[in-house]
Specification:
About 5% of the residues lie in helices and about 35% in strands. The protein is mainly beta and about 70 residues long. The strands form 2 sheets. Strands 2-1-3 form a 3-stranded antiparallel β-sheet, with no helix packed on it. A two-stranded antiparallel sheet has the order 4-5. Bound molecules: zinc ion (ZN).
Length: about 70
Amino acid sequence: MSKRTSSRFKCCLKCKMLLPSQANVCPNCKSSDFSFDWSGLVIVFDPEGSVIAKILNITKPGKYAIKCR
Ligand SMILES: [Zn+2]
C-alpha cells in the first residue's frame, strides 16, 4: 500500500511543493510543515496550461507531490 518514494525530497503539507530535505521554509507558501511521506511526482512548467496543475491547485512552476500526508 505504501510505496516509499525518495526521501531526498520532502513535501510541503500546504501546497504539496517538493523541497530539498534541508529546506526550512516553503518558498511557495511560507509554511514550515513538511512531510517525507509523499508519492507521485509532478513537474509543472506551465501552471496555466496544465490540467494537472489546475486539479492540484498549483499556481507556480516547480516539483510537486500528488499525495502528501
Ligand atoms: Zn508550501
